Amino acid sequence: MTQCKTSKEIGGMGHSLKRKEDARFIQGKGHYVDDIKLPGMLYMDIVRSPYAYAKIKSINIEEAMKVPGVITVVTGKDLEKYKLHWMPTLMSDTQMVLPTDTVMYQAQEVCAVIATSKYAARDGREAVKVEYEPMKPVMDPFKSLDPAAPVLRTDKPGKKDNHIWHWQAGDKEKTAQVFANADVVIKQQMHIPRIHVVSIETCGCVADYDKVNHHLTMYMTTQAPHAIRTVIALVAGHVGLSEERIRVVSPDIGGGFGGKVPVYPGYVIAIAVSFLVGKPVKWIEDRSENLQADSFARDYHITAELAGTKEGKILATRFKVLADHGYTDAAANPSKFPLGLFSICTGSYDYNAAFVEADAVYTNKPPGGVAYRCSFRVTEAVQAIERLTDMFAKKIGKDPAELRMQNFIKKEDFPWHSPTGWIYDSGNYQAGLQKAMDVVGYAALRKEQAEKQARGELMGIGISTFTEIVGAGPSKDFDILGIKMFDSAEIRVHPTGKAIARFGTKSQGQGHETTYAQIIAEELGIPAENIQVEEGDTDTAPYGLGTYASRSTPTAGAAAAVASRKLRDKARKIAAYLLEVSENDLEWETGKFFVKGAPEKSKTIQEIVFAAYTNHPQGMEAGFEATHYYDPPNLTFPSGAYICVVDIDKETGAIHIRRFVAIDDCGNIINPMIVQGQVHGGLTQAVAPAMYEELIYDGEGNILNGTLMDYLVPTAVESPKWETGHTCTPSPHHPIGAKGVGESPTVGGPPAIANAIIDALSPFGITHIDIPITPYKVWKALKEHGAYDK
Ligand code: CDP
């Protein structure tokens, strides 16, 4: 009898296997776009607009062309000759690649300088002279809707205003009725400001057009290689670059967070130049360009309302949203839900009346709407509902933990039909909050707080009990440019029992090379160390929609499990043939089939795979490989209970996060260490919008904090010690019961911090401050509420 290894020994599910990819990362052997050097490669730099809204009167390239090494300067008019000056966005909007007459936002691409070195390209950029005729930009989204505002998108025939879309969900009349009869109504205007993903690696590409073979290889920083390939074919199909002639390769990526989903003009310009010049062209953004021109998220103005009883029962919520998407809507967007998944705004609570409506507008800000680690607007929704919940508790004088416990959807009420149309798959919110309260020592902290308040000290405890929504598809609801949102896995096992598995997703640091291997190891019994995982090459990977919004585990992770199970079915047939028994007489145990009642008669997966190439049953196809395109029947609904404890210095407004306990529920966990890492990183990204980050523009459209000197990104110094843990309610519809996790902390973290700060300030009657809550805002609010009056 062959002794099989345990799930742990083969690196199966639920084990903290060390990340396979880290060997190359920690040795500095990662391979990023900027590491690519091709023979004859040219370098591109981009001249950008200093104005937010201006006519281009002239572009003088004379001096630039004199710079040694400069080959050419490409303008919008040059691209227009090939109809390459416009492109679609993944949101089904359109965007200029290079302008022919008008610039629409500060830092917009105006023309591109191509040279033999990046230094020559930069010198050439400085020598280009552009004459502008500035116009008054529209920077305020509310004023953008004013009938007197200039119509910004004159490129759209018949467009008479700056309105992009209206969308609504829930029952308007029923909600209005509940509000009219409620004991208590809370109403708060909130702004979730525009922020940036600030990944360590900026965006960039090497476009390599091979004139002889009429083929483009595009190396680029993209989270969605296949979708990009399709977009390139849509933009450049008419010059002969059809999809079979395009290969998109996404090498290692230094963080994406949603910012590397959209198509940026730089990519298309590089392709156009490579096509025209016949040489590879490299374009890499510098840090300031990245911060000023792309990867923007949020900028939502929300009127948030909650109706409840004086005993603390939530009855209804109502949200009116104005979304400032800047010059164009650049993000990937599930087409049926223009507001993304904001409609998760009813949160973890049991009530059945809600109404949400939203309008999106154009302004002269750079393209917005990137789904920055927020599953398409969930961060905004969770901030609104969790702030409202705390305000409600304060208003009626109830403990916010007790009020949440009172209002949670009960674990036996899943699947839960939310009033805005979602079917939550599973959850146990009471267990999560209870665990967080136990870990933090909630009762003792409240006692300490009361004592401190009596001494005039400011201490706050903030809770956020959020429900996330991740895993787009299902394809009936979600598509990008019409392409249905499934995802894929292809597993090919070689005769010696070692495998290669390819996916349509693309890791940017999440550890897919490890976790996908663990899923396959668990399902097939092949050790994870013998499974090579590849992503990011459209020539080899099956079509997929990419990695963002915590969708990889719910979609591609599921595809890995189902493809493995297809192989296990084949393995069963081969084992039955080899052991000369019926398939029904076989049982599976990690890595082998054995005969029921006779465990000494068995075949390991390695023996079976070898037989698939050498000695398989007559009529059966040789080889051992399977592909699966997984279309999820529903999204997954991870959840979390976070508790934050802050101390605030009354004189300066300085905020110190003393404790932060995060209990997450992402269903069955593939790799606990990776999940913990995801949560640590995500929580630091939660501190960012809660306390530091906001892109600020003046009335002329100038960005006032467009460098990392003044756009504040929290570092390890500003991050508290994270105390993490988990509860587990498996997703009933996911093949391995897993839910996504990557963005949960970014979603659930900010309101916990905001609620803690407001809790500390509440003795002075302060009920709300918009994020980011800075020491200055705290000091100002305290001053306005008489805290410094003698
Ligand atoms: O789409 P993305 O990879 O960003 O997000 P995710 O599906 O939440 O996964 C992030 C990482 O956590 C991946 O390596 C997953 O395999 C891992 N994960 C896990 O180990 N267990 C889960 N239940 C969910 C995610």
Automatic annotation (TrEMBL):
<dbReference type="GO" id="GO:0043885">
    <property type="term" value="F:anaerobic carbon-monoxide dehydrogenase activity"/>
</dbReference>
<dbReference type="InterPro" id="IPR000674">
    <property type="entry name" value="Ald_Oxase/Xan_DH_a/b"/>
</dbReference>
<dbReference type="InterPro" id="IPR036856">
    <property type="entry name" value="Ald_Oxase/Xan_DH_a/b_sf"/>
</dbReference>
<dbReference type="InterPro" id="IPR008274">
    <property type="entry name" value="AldOxase/xan_DH_MoCoBD1"/>
</dbReference>
<dbReference type="InterPro" id="IPR037165">
    <property type="entry name" value="AldOxase/xan_DH_Mopterin-bd_sf"/>
</dbReference>
<dbReference type="GO" id="GO:0005507">
    <property type="term" value="F:copper ion binding"/>
</dbReference>
<dbReference type="GO" id="GO:0005506">
    <property type="term" value="F:iron ion binding"/>
</dbReference>
<dbReference type="Pfam" id="PF01315">
    <property type="entry name" value="Ald_Xan_dh_C"/>
</dbReference>
<feature type="domain" description="Aldehyde oxidase/xanthine dehydrogenase a/b hammerhead">
    <location>
        <begin position="27"/>
        <end position="136"/>
    </location>
</feature>
<dbReference type="Pfam" id="PF02738">
    <property type="entry name" value="MoCoBD_1"/>
</dbReference>
<dbReference type="InterPro" id="IPR046867">
    <property type="entry name" value="AldOxase/xan_DH_MoCoBD2"/>
</dbReference>
<dbReference type="InterPro" id="IPR016208">
    <property type="entry name" value="Ald_Oxase/xanthine_DH-like"/>
</dbReference>
<dbReference type="GO" id="GO:0030151">
    <property type="term" value="F:molybdenum ion binding"/>
</dbReference>
<dbReference type="InterPro" id="IPR012780">
    <property type="entry name" value="CO_Mo_DH_lsu"/>
</dbReference>
<keyword id="KW-0560">Oxidoreductase</keyword>
<dbReference type="Pfam" id="PF20256">
    <property type="entry name" value="MoCoBD_2"/>
</dbReference>
<keyword id="KW-0500">Molybdenum</keyword>
<protein>
    <submittedName>
        <fullName>Carbon monoxide dehydrogenase</fullName>
    </submittedName>
</protein>
